[in-house]
């Protein structure tokens, strides 16, 4: 794929059925559980995301140095897996991955009896693993407001520890649905746990064989909601989604009701059609940080103002997402700013704003920047730089946009 693509302004009604890819979050958990359960789990509909392909490859690799590329879940889940293993191994990732913190997880694992050291800067990948010693404690205290991936990683290895594990979460719990997804999947494969208040306990147990069909990706679905909201008219069916989902990003259903999209579930499909919009929304993204970029862009173009909280974790993702979005939305005349500590406001494009076209958007090595900005083509000609970034979670994204009739050409 070339360094940039042009998406021509799309006027007609958007009417199609989208197959979507499946959830990389569910896939990557299911793969680790499968490995920890000695390959008894039968997994169906694994994601085509590069993060999932990477997880699968690394779990069966004998190489000493494992490269997760830019996959946060792979870095955090493989760290817990390798830390409790019996071999000397190393793990690394892209330059950005080596700037995403891992100290909380590495120290928690070392407290348990692992031997992890830093090969570069303290607190960040790359990491060196030496064989696990004996389990030193069965109780750990860990912050709940930095990354839930640390917590999910510890929980998945917990039943394999000789003494099990009790986690005390400190502070507010961010990305809680991802922790629940982990416990629900563990339960599906036979693991009992308790989550009361801020304490999660898992006794030593063996993962059982079972089959599991991965759900379509609600984070990927969010871009279709944005397209439905911004299109002149829309009737879009998204396949493979459950109304009662394990994925916190199914919160897009409620959020988009305020941005003019109605959802109707039918079996494993959801149909998106237009409904009335609101002029202002208050949204807390604590439980669904990956939806933030989608919603910023959609609201900015739709003329809806936003007041938001729960955006702290966006700074340590594939890029500093709030900073990157503030820069890109300014190209539309919209403003994203932190108005007081932890409170963000989005001022949408002024009505009738003149914009010189095509508008060129940068991707910041972040799949969600490219995917969230693309729906702007419902109103303007748009150039997306580094379009290949979408392979991280939704490799078919541009092909699916073409299926919707959007004209995309290489620049
Ligand atoms: O566990 C997971 O699958 C994920 C958890 C979230 O990360 P944080 O818990 O670091 O916010 C989310 O942003 C990420 O895309 C996937
Ligand atoms: C933050 C994300 O992924 P990860 O942390 O797994 O790299 C994401 O997919 O938006």
Automatic annotation (TrEMBL):
It is found in: Cytoplasm. InterPro entries: Enolpyruvate_Tfrase_dom (IPR001986), Enolpyruvate_Tfrase_sf (IPR036968), EPSP_synthase (IPR006264), RNA3'P_cycl/enolpyr_Trfase_a/b (IPR013792). Keywords: Amino-acid biosynthesis, Aromatic amino acid biosynthesis, Cytoplasm, Transferase. It catalyses: 3-phosphoshikimate + phosphoenolpyruvate = 5-O-(1-carboxyvinyl)-3-phosphoshikimate + phosphate. SUPFAM superfamilies: EPT/RTPC-like. Pathway: Metabolic intermediate biosynthesis; chorismate biosynthesis; chorismate from D-erythrose 4-phosphate and phosphoenolpyruvate: step 6/7. Its EC number is 2.5.1.19. Monomer. This is 3-phosphoshikimate 1-carboxyvinyltransferase. The gene is aroA.
């Amino acid at each position: 794929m070339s360094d940039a693509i042009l998406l021509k302004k799309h006027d007609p009604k958007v009417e199609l059925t989208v197959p979507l890819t499946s959830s990389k979050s569910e896939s990557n958990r299911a793969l680790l559980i499968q490995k920890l359960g000695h390959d008894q789990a039968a997994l169906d509909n694994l994601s085509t995301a590069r993060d999932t392909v990477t997880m699968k490859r690394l779990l069966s690799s004998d190489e000493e140095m494992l490269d997760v590329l830019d996959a946060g879940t792979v870095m955090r889940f493989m760290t817990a897996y390798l830390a409790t293993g019996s071999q000397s191994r190393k793990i690394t990732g892209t330059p950005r991955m080596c700037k995403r913190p891992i100290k909380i997880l590495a120290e928690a694992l070392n407290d348990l009896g692992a031997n992890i050291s830093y090969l570069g800067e303290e607190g960040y990948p790359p990491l060196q693993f030496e064989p696990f010693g004996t389990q030193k404690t069965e109780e750990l205290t860990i912050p709940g407001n930095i990354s839930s991936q640390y917590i999910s990683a510890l929980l998945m290895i917990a039943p394999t520890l000789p003494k099990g594990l009790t986690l005390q979460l400190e502070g507010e719990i961010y990305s809680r649905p991802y922790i629940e997804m982990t416990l629900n999947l563990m339960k599906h494969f036979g693991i009992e746990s308790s989550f009361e208040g801020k304490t999660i306990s898992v006794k030593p147990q063996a993962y059982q064989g079972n089959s599991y069909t991965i759900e379509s990706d609600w984070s990927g679905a969010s871009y279709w909601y944005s397209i439905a909201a911004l299109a002149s008219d829309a009737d879009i069916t998204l396949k493979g989604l459950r109304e009662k989902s394990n994925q916190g990003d199914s919160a897009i259903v409620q959020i988009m009701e305020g941005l003019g999209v109605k959802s109707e579930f039918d079996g494993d499909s959801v149909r998106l059609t237009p409904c009335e919009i609101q002029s202002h929304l208050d949204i807390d993204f604590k439980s669904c940080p990956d939806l933030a970029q989608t919603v910023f862009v959609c609201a900015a173009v739709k003329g809806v103002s936003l007041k938001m909280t729960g955006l702290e974790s966006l700074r340590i993702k594939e890029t500093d997402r709030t900073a990157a979005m503030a820069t890109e939305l300014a190209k539309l005349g919209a403003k994203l700013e932190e108005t007081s500590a932890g409170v963000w406001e989005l001022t949408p494009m002024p009505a009738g704003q003149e914009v010189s076209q095509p508008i060129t958007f940068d991707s910041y090595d972040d799949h969600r920047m490219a995917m969230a900005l693309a729906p702007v083509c419902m109103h303007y000609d748009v150039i997306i730089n580094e379009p290949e970034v979408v392979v991280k979670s939704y490799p078919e994204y541009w092909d699916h946009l073409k299926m919707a009739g959007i004209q995309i050409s290489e620049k």
